[in-house]
Design goal:
Blueprint lengths: L2 E3 L22 E5 L4 H11 L4 E5 L15 H16 L3 E10 L5 E2 L20 H14 L7 E11 L5 E12 L15 E3 L11 H7 L1 H14 L1
């Protein structure tokens, strides 16, 4: 039992690792720790070239564990280990969110929670425009010269039934704009502009976003470590 983590580059980011010969190799079936059919399709397409058959925790009837971690890695590992143990198969989970530097990297692991309506805010569910407004309000409280830099982070966690685990971390750096722009993305995409770009994530084609996103960065590291 052990852990394999992406090595760190000189600038603090994670490098694309070479395959670790001591780590189990992904073959056959892989449980994706999600009940979201869209996420299953996206991950299945990414792993299909490598001969991996993806099954969702939802279709296997596995319960969703409570995400009690305080970091992306902790929550991803909780989900991956629960799925691996429940299905007796290797499992992959992800956890991701927006980190606003001037707000101490909040909302971070609570990215989705910030979008949840309270009982006095209307019908139960998530309101991403409300969440974007919360962040903008906090930045405005810091004054007109507030640092608007931010990054999206994604952690992918692999777990095997014997307890072996591996994590791969990806980021995309950028800044926040206001008001929200574009309708092609989801979540906080309308206010996030990646470094070196002029359009928000919600203004560019999904294919272009997927080439530079935090999830693409993390997946590139997983593929390099598992199949490189």
């Amino acid at each position: 039992m052990g852990r394999w983590q992406s090595p760190q580059a000189a600038d603090g980011g994670a490098k694309a690792p070479k395959r670790n010969p001591t780590m189990p190799k992904l073959t056959g079936q892989l449980v994706i720790a999600t009940h979201n059919a869209g996420k299953l399709r996206e991950i299945s397409a990414l792993l299909a070239p490598y001969g991996v058959e993806c099954l969702s925790a939802g279709e296997l009837g596995l319960a969703e564990p409570a995400e009690t971690g305080t970091t992306f890695a902790e929550n991803a590992l909780i989900k991956a280990h629960a799925a691996a143990k429940g299905a007796n198969l290797p499992a992959l989970a992800d956890d991701s969110g927006l980190c606003v530097h001037a707000l101490g990297n909040r909302p971070g692991v609570y990215t989705a929670d910030w979008a949840e309506r309270q009982w006095f805010e209307g019908e139960k569910g998530r309101d991403w425009y409300m969440a974007m407004g919360k962040i903008e309000g906090l930045l405005c409280e810091l004054g007109p010269d507030a640092d608007r830099s931010a990054h999206f982070a994604c952690t992918l966690a692999l777990a095997w039934p014997d307890g072996t685990e591996a994590i791969y971390e990806g980021t995309v750096q950028g800044s926040l704009t206001w008001p929200p722009r574009g309708a092609k993305g989801f979540g906080y995409d309308p206010v996030f502009i990646a470094r070196g770009m002029e359009q928000s994530f919600a203004e560019i084609a999904p294919e272009a976003k997927h080439q530079i996103s935090h999830r693409a960065d993390a997946f590139a590291k997983l593929v390099a470590a598992q199949f490189g």
